[in-house]
Amino acid sequence: MNKTYYEEVEPGKMILRDHLAYDRTVLANERTFLAYVRTAIALVATGCMLIKVFGNHTEVMYAGYGLIVIGLFTSVWGIRRYKKVWNKINRAYVD
User: Fold this and answer.
1) Which of 19, 33, 71, 82 is the S-S candidate for 44 at Cβ 3.0 to 4.6 Å?
2) Cα–Cα distance for residue pair 40/90, rounded to 1 Å
3) Alpha helices in 9-57 (DSSP H)
4) For residue 6, pLDDT beyond 60
5) Rounded CA gap, 17 and 11, in Å?
6) What's the pLDDT score for residue 22?
């Protein structure tokens, strides 16, 4: 297991700069999660549009289904990554 800087410092001895760094890390994790969600929504919406507009073209329809599947995988990947980083942050910083 990788040790982080915050695991070596007691929370009571942390100064304001350390608490603000923790907050920035949490916000960066949330921002990254929202980017995954935004990308997943765009992929699923594009896939649905391709199926709806070009439903009579088999290749395009399969591409649409592929985009929907990729969008779903992207959302699952984003959720897993968010939880993994969140757990790592909370392990390192105990209030």
Assistant:
1) 71
2) 26
3) 16-53
4) no
5) 12
6) 85
Q: What residues have CB less than 8 Å from 64, skipping those under 6 apart?
A: 46, 47, 48, 49, 50, 51, 54
CA distance 86 to 90: 6
Tell me which amino acid residue 25 is: T
Cα–Cα distances (Å) from 59 to 2, 50, 56, 65, in that order, read 46, 10, 9, 10
39-92 per-position pLDDT tens digit: 999 999 999 999 999 989 999 999 999 999 999 999 999 999 999 999 988 886
Which amino acid is present at 40?
A
Cβ(25)–Cβ(9) under 8 Å? no
